[in-house]
Batch of 2 targets.
Target 1
Amino acid sequence: MPIRILPEHVAAQIAAGEVVERPASVVKELIENALDAQARAIRVDVQGGGRKLIRVSDDGCGIPAEEAPLAFARYATSKLQSLDDLDRLQTLGFRGEALASIASVARVTMLTRHIEAKVGTFLRLEGGRLLEQRAEGAPHGTVVTVEDLFFNTPARLKFLKSETTERRQIESVLMRYAMAYPDVRFSLSQDGRLSFATNGNGSLAEVLVETLGLEIVRQLLPVQPPEGERPPIAVYGYTSAPTLHRTTRAYITLFVNGRHVQDASLSYAVAQAYHTLMPEDRYPIAVLMIVLPPSEVDVNVHPTKAEVRFRSPEAVFSAVQRAVRRAVLGASSSSPIFTLSRAESERVQHASSATPKAQRAMQLDTQDVGRHTQQVPSEPSSELSAEEDLTKRPRSLPPMRIVGQLAATYIIAEAPAGMYLIDQHAAHERILYEQYMRAQAQRKPYAQRTLQPFTLSVPPATLRLIEENLESMRALGFELEPFGINMVRVHAVPTALSNHNPAEAVAEVLADLEQGKTAGESAFEAQLILRICKAAAVKAGQVLSYTEMNELLRQLERCEHPLSCPHGRPTLIHISAAQLAKEFGRA
Ligand code: ADP
Ligand code: MG
């Protein structure tokens, strides 16, 4: 093909790909514009995961009628005049690309009224071309409606993920801005249903209750500069107590001057602050605002501005690490910091009955009903105890005699064939897993009704997962009922979890669930079972009584596959009598 300059609309569509990758990027750009316009309230309505419609309404300063068409021109911005302005940048936008990009790949309308104007302006564009402009009555502020995204770029449309995925992405975008701007009121409706909202009263903690859920927020520690100090690089926000951690860094959310950033090095700084306080492969949950002079950070590195460059990265790294470390260490000397307002406390009826983790009873004897739950009345308890009649099942290991517990993590036992070191957590996971599978196979309801239904606040993304899998979850013993905004009512939990503080256990299972990639229903169920067993199993570091160890071994000896946990790790190490003799030179 000969070299030719691309027609303008084609060039625009190609360029748009950098900024508008998916519906969530449209939402992001429109929210940033609303924030830059000093909006106090931002409302987002979405239909069909954003493919059908995205509407962002704000009460910001609006655009004067004569400037409105210009807003859709490429490189048209009111936020910057020269490159030097970047050093003083107070706005999220500055490239003047977003509206032009969005308009080139969708059907767009804008209704806007400038604060000083008597009437508003209505504009309609399609594939980047202005089709209509007229005066129209409107309240102050701006409403941008984006319909049929990618209607003229089918290739791009093809790459979109499922509607569910797009919905969740949009939710995450909303949540991130809500965290960064707690004094702005946000609301998100998807297909006519309100899925997320904040009150705009300026409290980050209250926004976090909506985004992370109350269970998590109760375990967060505030991060802030020392009293009276205003360091050049200030770090504010919340970070988890060392006892609350996750398997990925995905829960470390960072903002630089009100801009969400993904920065592996800073996430590492946060994790580093927990050195020796948290297992090596675990990560805290944190939401941190890093505030520094605009001249210290280059935001113009990436079209979507997701990455930034610091003038002195080491200084930022150590400021973050020190701030988090101070919060974590300071917490041990004072009481838990996040105190709930009365209203919040009332939202969690079970809060007062929480059992400290350390006092969790072991869930080995299923007849021993925890104080939080009772057997489902319609189900005779004999069924479960009959299930637990161990002697009916064939032995898979020789009878072992307990010698003791090692490091509160391993059980030392002996049998004629030699010595056994048993990983108590892995072994218990195996036992629970097989119990579960047997109950499933016999189609026995494996649920315990909670004495009183209790409510849990869950992040919208988790709520969505629950809604999509209500039936599978019920089959596994969770009777959950979504209600209100981001709440579930828990009516029953799997028996395996009933001796724990069910609220905590359910929260743990759900939190893990959200991370997992779930493909297909059976995969979802299998994952869920694994997670229930993991949450229910005794942990490493838990001191066990002789009776508890004995019960654990008796059950392990009758497992079908006693040698590995359901994740495939070994449950025990066997050193034979012959091996011992050889090691000691007796052979
Ligand atoms: P940028 O935000 O980088 O300046 P955009 O294409 O997103 O570029 O927007 C172009 C211009 O349109 C902005 O600079 C601003 O002046 C105006 N504008 C866009 N959205 C709004 C809004 N919601 N309220 C007021 N002005 C807006
Ligand atoms: Mg913008």
Note: The pocket of magnesium ion (ligand 2) is lined by residues 29, 32-33, 93, 98 (CB under 6 Å).
Target 2
Amino acid sequence: MEKFVIHGGNSLHGEVHISGAKNAAVAIIPAVILSDGVCRIENIPNIMDVNIIATILHEMGAKITRVNKSTLEIDPTHIKNPVATYELVRHMRASCYLLGALLGKFSRAEVALPGGCDFGVRPIDQHLKGFGILGAEHSVAGGMINVKADKLVGGHIYLDVVSVGATVNIMLAAVKAEGKTIIENAAKEPHIVDLANFLNSMGADVRGAGTDVIKINGVKHLNGTTYSIIPDQIEAGTYMVAAAATGGDVIVRNVITKHLESITAKLREMNVQVDEYEDSVRVHRTGTLHRCNVKTMPHPGFPTDMQPQIAVLLSIANGTSIVTEAVWDNRFRYVEELRRMGAEISVDGKIAVIEGVKELIGAPVKATDLRAGAAMIIAALAAKGTTYIEDIQHIERGYEDVVEKFAALGADIKRVYSNDPVVQTA
Ligand code: EPU
């Protein structure tokens, strides 16, 4: 097993280039199944989740060519069997997008129940409700979900909860359905807009993505296309918070500043300077961090995927802050790890009360999930002493070249095998 060893205390300086958005890539790659031609996707992050979803498509018969580190060419025209087995699917939540894409293409799909980050119950009732309104029946047997329709016909779908996954899956199933589909109370995340733009570049007719009503006029065919994925909002936010936590000065390049507004606003409230440029932000801090309250919300609210990272920053701010997690039931599992580094945080249900401490102290900790792992890196960089982070496979699911990028900013971070000696003898 590998782990990260981080000697804290270096403030981060320099520039970091943000990769393509994970959560857009894991929706767009399955969406290629709907195409009748070859799709060239650029700005794909080279991360485990992308490799898994690409491998699943390959196993189903798609021809995948890696043009370069961030570009894949996918020819889905040889996919004949709309089945994705447990072996690969179990590692990844977003594999449920195969349901919508295969259903949209073949009017049937059989996909193992998904895995992915564990932070509470992760139902897919809204996905299935949407499929049902489009005319598909579903059943569960042997750990597999089956969906099938004689013919998909557009319909009017009101989502009971704002769900990224349900919005994506319904869009995928509806683009080739007969007639018009309306999704109300749709998710508005940047990756929803990116997926809509990708589908439209294949010839789909999707309007309103980015608002809470998405209208889709079904089309008969979707053609191959060339498309470049948007930059990763959460990766950018993670480096912004890391710069702030270490009292550094970092230019975060290849971002869409509009997507970062909620993060920028909170950093400014905490006495961190954020300067916005056309496609970059500069984050620098010299003064003490001020306390503030944070509540996670669907976009354009503060992203739940930045909640653990901002909590680290608040744990070294002056005063008491309250963090409310309003999206997931159980996203404070990392708090126990952070407490081991000296953070003073109490959790009651979906609310964490954080008493700022002067400094965190390095300790052995675990990455309990992807974003929790990113938070552990930030805590370790800001802490006094050495931190060992285990279960880094969670982090590598979603952050491209994380060690290299932090090291280039001056962080003392290394990936080692658990059996490697981590303490140097004199
Ligand atoms: N929900 C339902 N029923 C459903 C679907 C969702 O009740 O059918 C509930 C969930 O239990 C949750 C809320 O709705 O309380 C939001 O869930 P959503 O469906 O929006 O989440 P998701 O699609 O499973 C995506 C991201 C997550 C991110 C959430 C919220 C991808 C691949 N994953 O998950 O990203 O936390 O949206 O923004 O896009 C991450 O990148 O670290 C990550 C976990």
Note: The chain is about 30% helix and 25% strand.
